[in-house]
Design goal:
Heparinase II/III family protein, Hepar_II_III_C, Chondroitin_lyas, 22% strand
Length: 561
């Protein structure tokens, strides 16, 4: 059945209303008494945390300064949980307790005392009343994982009273999370909830049946969210890395304690590694698609050292819908898909047919990426088609996003069909053709893109074409204006070589020449959202052309040195 725009919007409102109503009925009245229960007498094991620590951050926290989410909050001696916080993202980071890992750098008893005081402050101010950011499902899941993983630091030399309060609060959070698990929206958060509950079932005293139930629920969610090609169902390259950082310690915890490992856990991890390497440029960075942002090199290295599936990256991820071209030292990764569901579109980007190109250790053409800590305005800007290395028509995204607070930032319309065809000649040419219909309803146009790597990886040839639904050139009356954008990594220097050529130079001296004799070529200001230091200025190459007068442009990138 094909819906009109208004019919689809009505369907989305009804769907969200039913979801909220069903969740409310399922949860019933939430009170602290409802989740009261026995307190475990001990913790059995503390799972490993693979994330790196920073002793400087530990020192700052012990001094009452919390450097989180790109901000530094000076508590001036007050509890961080009793004062106004600078942003929602900061609050989520604070309440999720991921920063506990840095406190592993503590070497003096006074530091342990101060840490316990901070944790006790949270138990006293938020541990007895359910509500707010502190009790969002994903925040609870992260906090449970952090408390379990870093319990040796938190409980070191602790008096009996604090030990009991800590375990009582932890057990309370696990019971509450278990109750709401089925109502969590689809996506990474839902899987993390199941991971936290599985980790709690083996790290805390539990019956055999409880351990098996947590294991079965984790298996079901892994099967739902880890695609057959190993990518996460959100289509975000970073999601796989974040999940592996918790799945690997969970696997090891099961093995160390002699429990049966969930049947889908090891196969899923084995599938995820090739997908992670698929998105990895040769310099070690992950491609910036669908919410991916900067990745710390040591985080990626800490995960990849457990990779037992080493081999060449795949040419395609057929279920996540990405393609990879590689010849010589040149790599091109291209997005050839769309969100796999409405719920999963909440963080998806309108970047279909966008690509990234790297040579050796240098990234030349990229997408703008997602901001790591910026506010909602920047987060939504980063999702627009213009923030990706692809073609935009009339400054409009190929997918439309909801502006409704009720619906949330889901995609409401846009892509319905993406066609892909590989045209490789092994060892000589890596070539790809793809098209999408994201502009068909609005402007009557299809976008086609050809990309080929030739000459041993020293030549990249591209073609972008706008056509009608029947494949013919646009009508003369079509007034649509198009811009092909090529976002250039901030480390790359650019200068004009001629009216139709732009010279690109990497810091190590490697140079490429971008050439396009069609349309209007320009170097323009840009924004790079995914820089580790935050949102920063950068530059982009643009080629502007009119759909009717010049429906096709051809361009090349040629290695000069």
């Amino acid at each position: 059945m094909v819906f009109s725009g208004k019919q689809r919007l009505l369907y989305l409102y009804l769907r969200e209303g039913w979801r909220r109503f069903s969740r409310r009925i399922s949860l019933g009245r939430l009170t602290a008494m409802r989740f009261a229960g026995s307190t475990p007498d001990r913790l059995i094991v503390a799972p490993t945390d693979l994330r790196a620590i920073d002793p400087f951050v530990a020192e700052e926290i012990l001094e009452g300064r919390f450097p989180l989410a790109g901000r530094v909050l000076d508590t001036e001696g007050e509890s961080p949980f009793e004062i106004d916080l600078p942003s929602h993202e900061f609050a989520a980071r604070l309440h999720s307790f991921g920063w506990l890992r840095h406190l592993r750098a503590i070497r003096e008893d006074a530091g342990y005392v101060r840490l316990r005081q901070i944790v006790d402050d949270w138990i006293g101010s938020h541990g007895r009343s359910i509500g707010g950011i502190a009790w969002e499902a994903d925040v609870i899941a992260q906090r449970i994982i952090a408390w379990l993983s870093h319990s040796p630091v938190v409980l070191r030399n602790a008096e009996h009273g604090f030990y009991r309060r800590f375990l009582k609060s932890l057990a309370f959070q696990v019971r509450y999370l278990r109750h709401i698990a089925d109502t969590v929206c689809d996506g990474e958060a839902r899987l993390r909830v199941r991971m936290a509950l599985a980790m709690a079932s083996v790290s805390m005293p539990a019956s055999v049946s409880a351990i098996r139930k947590a294991s079965r629920n984790l298996d079901l969610e892994l099967d739902r969210q880890i695609l057959p090609d190993g990518a996460h169902s959100s289509r975000s390259p970073r999601a796989g890395l974040e999940l592996l950082l918790d799945l690997l310690p969970l696997r090891q915890t099961y093995v160390n304690l002699g429990h049966d490992v969930p049947s889908r856990l090891i196969p899923c991890i084995d599938r995820m590694y090739p997908a992670l390497r698929f998105f990895r440029h040769q310099g070690g960075e992950l491609a910036l698609f669908n919410g991916a942002t900067s990745v710390l090199a040591h985080e990626l290295a800490s995960v990849l050292r457990y990779d037992e599936t080493a081999g060449e990256p795949f040419h395609s991820l057929p279920h996540a819908h990405y393609e990879r071209l590689s010849l010589g030292e040149t790599v091109v990764i291209m997005d050839t898909g769309r969100p796999l569901s409405i719920d999963l579109s909440r963080s998806a980007h309108a970047g279909c047919l966008s690509f990234e190109m790297s040579s050796g250790r240098n990234r030349f053409v990229i997408n703008s990426g997602a901001p790591k800590f910026a506010g909602e305005r920047f987060r939504q800007m980063a999702r627009a088609t213009a923030a990706h290395s692809t073609v935009t028509v009339n400054d409009t995204s190929s997918c439309r996003f909801s502006q409704s607070r009720f619906l949330g930032p889901i995609m409401t319309s846009g892509l319905s069909a993406v066609l892909v065809e590989r045209r490789d000649e092994p060892g000589r040419i890596e070539s790809l053709w793809a098209s999408h219909d994201g502009y068909l309803a609005s402007f009557g146009l299809l976008h086609e893109r050809d990309i080929s790597i030739l000459s041993g990886g020293r030549l990249l040839r591209g073609r972008d074409r706008l056509s009608r639904g029947d494949g013919a050139d646009p009508d003369a009356a079509n007034a649509a204006s198009a811009v092909a954008r090529f976002h250039i990594h901030p480390a790359i220097a650019m200068r004009r070589a001629s009216d139709s050529e732009i010279y690109l130079a990497a810091p190590d001296g490697e140079a490429w020449l971008f050439a396009c004799r069609d349309g209007e070529l320009a170097i323009e200001e840009d924004i790079f959202f995914a820089d580790p230091s935050g949102v920063r200025a950068s530059s982009q190459i643009t080629v502007t052309f009119a759909a009717a007068a010049q429906p096709e442009i051809q361009w090349t990138l040629t290695r000069e040195s």
